[in-house]
Amino acid sequence: MSMELLAGIILIGGFFLLMMVKVPVTFAMLISTFCSMLVVGTYLPSVAPTTMIRMMIDGVSNFTMLAIPFFIVMGEIMAVGQISDKIVDLANLAVGRFRGGLAYVNCLDSMFFGGISGSAVADVSSLGSVVIPMMEKQGYNREFSVGLTVTTACQGVLIPPSHNMVIYALAAGGGVSIGQLFYAGFVPGIGLGLGFIIVCILLGKRYGFPKGEKMFKDAPVRWISFKGGFKVGPCVKVVISAILPMMTLVIIMVGTGVGIFTATESSAVACFYTFILTYFVFRTAKLKDFGKVIRNSLKTLSIVLTLIASAKAFAYMMTLLGIPQAITNGLIGITSNPVLLLLIINVILLILGCFMDMAPLIMIMTPILLPIVTQLGMSTVHFGIVLIFNLAIGLCTPPVGSALFVGCAVGKTSIEAASKKMLPLFAVMIVGLLLVTYVPFFLKPGLFGY
Questions:
Q1: What is the largest CA-CA distance in the chain?
Q2: Residue range 398-442, pLDDT digits in tens
Q3: 87 backbone dihedrals φ, ψ, rounded to 5°
Q4: Smallest Cα–Cα separation from 115: which of 237, 266, 247?
Q5: DSSP 99
Q6: Three-class SS string for 219-283?
Q7: According to the model, what pLDDT value does residue 444 have?
Q8: Mean pLDDT of all residues in 326-353
Q9: Which of 53, 100, 142, 228 makes the best surface tag, with the fewest CB within 10 Å?
Q10: Residue 224: beta bridge partners?
């Protein structure tokens, strides 16, 4: 056995072995990379364990990386500012009065909130704590309520802003425009939400979902004159309260789309806007508690950055050992048919998404699969959306779906029971994935197509 083959076995085999014994993914990557480098160092003296440290530093020493902490802080500010309540009220005002209205509310509020948080887990934890009890109280099955909340939350990683798109851009070598990724994810994210609404309509007719109530029975949606002044009707208050947070999406999309901001600059401006909105406009949080927001953000950021740094060193070793090229040759050796090859790639990603979290998979699989799809003529932006869509499904699939875990904890139900109710919703996600994979038209939102 050659030393190169032994190093490859230690790298890949050691990683999966450590994962099987439930070693955290960051440490699994670090340990397997370190041991593999020791073997490589016996015949390549230039590759020493210190190389791993250099690769890790290079992985997080990038100006684009600044977008990630800004997005994380923005999400924490929204959580303490109870922005989710305003989004739920807007969705309830729009569709809550129809039969199955709360199910539609669940789909819409995830669509709205995903456009300002960019996090599926944040979506489930904040919106789920509001919507799931509301649905259960109105007569919906608890497991269905949890399942719907979990699956609709996956829109959050497709609808910009999404820090996972930033991670993909870095893993792809920095040659991918984050702004183009944002725009390419917009239509698939909205389309996925509309697909969920259609399924809810069909299920509502079959199972007789309860009919919702009008939010304000006698409230006019207009400005009302009163003694020479003006006051706002309750419906208009709901609309204004929800539109102000959603301007975050406008700042990011328009700012990056017309070239006013880079993705990093737009994330900083959006974060500052959210700060002003929460602490000075709505005043739904106290400024003295802002230190807690920073502490929570640092905890999340430390997890994300260590994952990225570890994955960078891991990816370096894979490239050095020629593993991505070997996998490329192996897959192309199976078939040269682009349709079948893309189907195989999707199946691989769906399976891996069941066992690993999103960020490390993006860092590991991008350098492996990107050369394959580019040979097929797929653009780096197109593949980025396909990759993120695949791994978004993994967020709500057992046994390691983080959004599924959070949703079941919030809804106080088991993963098995919720997963059974999610089967029709999984079908919608698979159909959406196939459309995005094979019909690039869905990635081109009009003027801002890439």
A1: 91
A2: 766 778 877 888 788 888 888 888 899 999 999 999 999 998 776
A3: -65, -40
A4: 247
A5: B
A6: CCCCEEEECCEEEECHHHHHHHHHHHHHHHHHHHHHHHHCCCCCHHHHHHHHHHHHHHHHHHHCC
A7: 60
A8: 84
A9: 228
A10: 231
244: phi then psi, degrees, rounded to nearest 5: -60, -50
Helix (H, G, I), strand (E, B) or coil at 211: strand
Tell me how long the chain is.
Answer: 450
| Alpha carbon separation from 62 to 59, 135, 169, 173, 370 (Å, rounded) | 7, 44, 11, 11, 21
Distance CA 198, CA 46 (A): 58
Spatial contact of 108 and 159, defined as CB atoms under 8 Å apart:
no
> How deeply is 403 buried, as exposed, middle or buried, from its count of CB atoms within 10 A (0-12, 13-18, 19+)?
buried
Q: Which range of residues forms the domain containing residue 335?
A: 3-448
Contact 240, 232 (CB under 8 A): yes
- At 237-288, the pLDDT tens digits run 777 777 787 787 777 777 766 667 777 788 888 889 889 988 988 888 888 8
Residue-wise pLDDT for 102-157, tens only, equals 788 888 877 777 666 666 776 777 677 778 887 887 788 888 888 888 888 888 78
Q: What percent of the chain has pLDDT over 70?
A: 86
Euclidean distance between CA atoms 318 and 15, whole angstroms: 12
Give yes or no for a contact between 361 and 352, defined as CB atoms under 8 angstroms apart.
yes
Q: Can you spell out the DSSP letters for 25-71? A: HHHHHHHHHHHHHHHHTTT-TT--HHHHHHHHHHHH--GGGGHHHHH
With contact defined as beta carbons under 8 Å apart, do 349 and 391 qualify? yes
Number of structural domains found in the chain = 1
